[in-house]
Specification:
Low-confidence stretches: 1-19, 348-357
Helix content: 40-55%
CATH class of the largest domain: Alpha Beta
Mean pLDDT: 87
CATH superfamily of the largest domain: 2-enoyl-CoA Hydratase, Chain A, domain 1
CATH architecture of the largest domain: Alpha-Beta Complex
Number of strands: 21
Strand content: 15-25%
Length: about 550
């Protein structure tokens, strides 16, 4: 009888809801199902988990970028974009279950108390973190904490017999969105941006002005591998290059009216030659900036076709701190190109008909399909229908929509030095570990010998001892030695080792100065500037 009464109450409540909201059948249906399961199902259920699963399944029927994130995921996702987190301020590497400090953050909490590069942190608040098989995530959770809180660190330092103890007061630690900014040649600056976050525009302006004081007239803007971020950050960056009232991007959707975003005319680099570097991993905000520069004939785009992520997500905060990121519109470049590449959430991997759940996998595999079809190797393997043709705003050059931004100058992906042997070395972390070991044993010697990076860059060479360590470590990890592949990848291995050593002795600027010497897109950009190819593409 009690069960019958509960059922009658449930039905009564649902009928009441139905009467109050006759026009929203789908919402009533969903509410009735959840209410019935929560109150009538034979066993207890976790309503929160049921709701999460329902939301996830609904979003899976939409586009690839409408997603659900729980509260913890939201926090981790927002940190890099917000531009800071709260912690002790060290760059570190896990070496044989020990946290090795690569560099303390300049003027950060750890540097202020005397923690040095090369120190090993073995305990946090008297709790051992070394030799206990603790995950990197667990270690980071112990090091991070509210600003102003204190943490006790136990440190082992090379050349010091006893352990050292430091009380570190946590503070806000900046997460920079600029990887590097330096003069790559006289009158040419180089700036690399890894994401579009809350501080990107400020970081860029600071770097730009510093380069201009060093005589910069031309700029290489590197957006290779930049997956995007905040729309406002992209608009602010594009504003640096465009004239007042020039359209940067517009958005439009079924329920979202067209919104136009224009340059304010307050930029610091509205003149001067500009080259933008992109690749297949440049997405979203990177594509907005690149598309605006290309459509206004403001600069030359070099590299490979960008990812093709042109859907606008609106974050919808839920009561428990979780979030839905719901696509509400599409991005369009000034010439009217839609950035988003085609997608079908229900397509089979072979593209033949519906197949539940396979559409997302097919979308994720699209870059591999590009490679298999030869697009990464040959520009003439890319074909766009005339229906996607558009014209740039000033010179009337032909550009195409249909997904991603196609560069003005194509640079094929470099496969000449990549081998399975090298990939296995990277996957097992052997190159980074070998670098760390080398730095730990030779830091003082290197610092005394190379007071400045310029001397290091011109004179330092990777010797046989460190290469022997790599081969030995690979054998220990059961990576079969292949002499042909090793010799093929050796120039790349040496470049990566030298760049990582430079990073550990100095910073990311120096890392990219080493790596860019062999980066084909960077070298193509320099040729375009130095051989007057730029003026042929964009005559003034």
């Amino acid at each position: 009888m009690k069960r019958l009464l509960v059922l009658m109450v449930c039905v009564g409540v649902l009928v009441s809801v139905q009467a109050q909201n006759r026009n929203n059948t789908a919402a009533r249906k969903l509410q009735m199902a959840e209410f019935a399961i929560a109150n009538l199902y034979v066993d207890p259920v976790d309503e929160n988990k049921l709701a999460e699963e329902a939301i996830i399944r609904m979003l899976e029927q939409l586009d690839p970028h409408s997603t659900y994130n729980n509260a913890e995921e939201v926090k981790k996702m927002n940190e890099p974009l917000q531009g800071n987190f709260e912690g002790i301020g060290v760059q570190f590497q896990m070496i044989e279950d020990t946290l090795l400090v690569i560099q303390p953050v300049s003027n950060g909490p750890s540097e202020k108390v005397g923690i040095l590069a090369g120190d090993r942190i073995v305990a946090v608040n008297d709790s051992a973190i070394a030799g206990v098989k603790m995950s990197t995530e667990d270690i980071m959770s112990r090091l991070r904490g509210p600003k102003g809180s204190e943490v006790k660190l136990t440190v082992v330092r090379r050349g010091v017999d006893d352990a050292l103890y430091f009380n570190v007061k946590r503070d806000k630690i900046p997460i920079l969105s600029l990887d590097a900014s330096y003069m790559i040649q006289p009158k040419t600056g180089y700036i690399r941006i890894n994401r579009f976050g809350a501080t990107t525009a400020e970081e860029f302006t600071t770097a730009l002005k510093a380069l201009q004081t060093q005589g910069m007239k031309d700029l290489i803007l590197d957006l290779q591998g930049n997956g995007g971020g905040y729309l406002n950050a992209a608009i602010d960056l594009a504003n640096e290059f465009l004239q007042q009232k020039e359209l940067i991007v517009y958005t439009e959707g079924r329920a979202a009216q067209r919104s136009n975003f224009h340059a304010r005319g307050t930029g610091n680099f509205k003149e001067g030659r500009l080259i933008v570097l992109v690749d297949e991993y440049s997405a979203s905000a990177s594509e907005i900036v690149t598309g605006a520069i290309q459509d206004w004939d403001r600069g030359v785009v070099v590299g490979r076709r960008t990812f093709g992520k042109g859907l606008v997500q609106r974050p919808i905060d839920l009561p428990d701190g979780s979030m839905i990121r719901l696509t509400i519109a599409r991005y369009y470049t000034p010439s009217g190109r839609c950035i988003q590449k085609p997608y079908d959430r229900t397509a089979n991997l072979d593209g033949k008909g519906a197949g539940e759940g396979n559409g997302q996998e097919k979308y994720n595999m699209e870059l591999l399909e590009r490679f298999n079809h030869g697009e990464m190797m040959h520009a003439d393997s890319i074909h766009f229908p005339d229906s996607l043709k558009c014209s740039t705003k000033k010179l009337g050059r032909t550009v195409y929509g249909g997904g991603g931004i196609m560069p003005d100058y194509f640079v094929p992906i470099d496969t000449t030095q990549y081998t399975d042997y090298h990939r296995n070395l990277v996957a097992k972390g052997i190159i980074i570990k070998a670098t760390t070991k080398y730095i730990e044993n030779h830091r003082k010697e290197l610092q005394e010998k190379y007071k400045k990076f310029e001397a290091f860059n011109s004179k330092f060479n990777i010797g046989e001892p460190i290469l022997a360590d790599i081969r030995a470590a690979a054998e220990k990890e059961k990576i079969e030695f292949n002499e042909e592949q090793y010799n093929k990848s050796l120039p790349l291995i040496k470049t990566q080792l030298k760049a990582l050593i430079a990073r550990d002795l100095w910073d990311m600027n120096e890392y990219y100065q080493v790596m860019n010497a062999t980066n084909n897109s960077v070298q193509q950009a320099l040729r375009i500037l130095n051989e007057k190819i730029y003026e042929e593409k964009l005559p003034r």
